[in-house]
Structures are given as C-alpha cells and as structure tokens.
From TrEMBL:
The gene is yqjZ. This is Antibiotic biosynthesis monooxygenase. SUPFAM superfamilies: Dimeric alpha+beta barrel (SSF54909). It comes from the Bacteria. It comes from Streptomyces fructofermentans. InterPro entries: Dimeric_a/b-barrel (IPR011008), Jasmonate_Hydroxylase-like (IPR052936). PANTHER family: ABM DOMAIN-CONTAINING PROTEIN (PTHR37811:SF2), BLL5343 PROTEIN (PTHR37811).
Length: 120
C-alpha cells in the first residue's frame, strides 16, 4: 500500500461500483514478504484497468483489514475479476494468507465528499 498521506478516494458522480473486501489474515502474512509483494503487484495491476477509480484501505489493531475498490462500471469489474494474475493471487490467498474474508459488490447510487479548508 502507498506511503502517501491518508486521504479517502474522492466522491465520483454515480452510478459506479464499490467492491468491499474484508479479511482476517493468517499468521503467514504477519511478516513482510510475498504477501506484501503480491499486494503491491495487485495494486499496480488494478490501477491499469480502464474504469478503475481508486482504492481505500485500513487495518484495525485487532487484525481486520478492509479494502474498498471503486470501479466506473461492470465492465471494469469484470476485467479485474478475470485478470489472470489476480485470479492466481486469490487462489493463493485462500490457500495461505486468509483465515477468512468477505466480498461485497455494491452499486453506488449517492456519493459526496468533504474536505476541510486550510486554516488561515
């Protein structure tokens, strides 16, 4: 994941899609290594998908991880879902890296944002 300052993905004009991936990792992912490299590669790959809008990610101290990817349309989602490297990473995730996960795909019907004005 990025080392840039925390900021949510901007609000886009609906409709678009949100893919919510919530997971609990195994102890195999607690040390740096192949999981981190694979996560970086997936971020690189998804950013190349036409219609990919961005991603928000957070980890809780208790081990819950939430990643939300945003896509302009169902075609973009299909391209990401069917990417060969992504499919291989999913398979490895089930075999090694995740104790559990859920995946939710939602069509966004309303979206807005707030950004605090700089202090003067």
């Amino acid at each position: 994941m990025s080392d840039q300052p925390a900021a949510p993905v901007t609000a886009y004009e609906p409709p678009y899609y949100a893919v919510v991936f919530t997971s609990v990792k195994t102890t195999a992912t607690s040390a740096p290594g192949e999981y981190g490299a694979t996560a970086e590669r997936m971020e690189e790959l998804v950013s190349r998908i036409p219609g990919y809008l961005g991603m928000d990610h957070a980890d809780s101290p208790g081990g819950l991880s939430i990643t939300v990817g945003y896509f302009r349309d169902a075609d973009a989602l299909h391209l990401w879902r069917s990417d060969i490297e992504h499919r291989a990473a999913q398979k490895r995730g089930r075999a090694e890296w995740y104790e559990s996960y859920t995946l939710h795909v939602a069509k966004v019907e309303r979206s807005h944002a707030f950004v605090r004005e700089p202090a003067r």
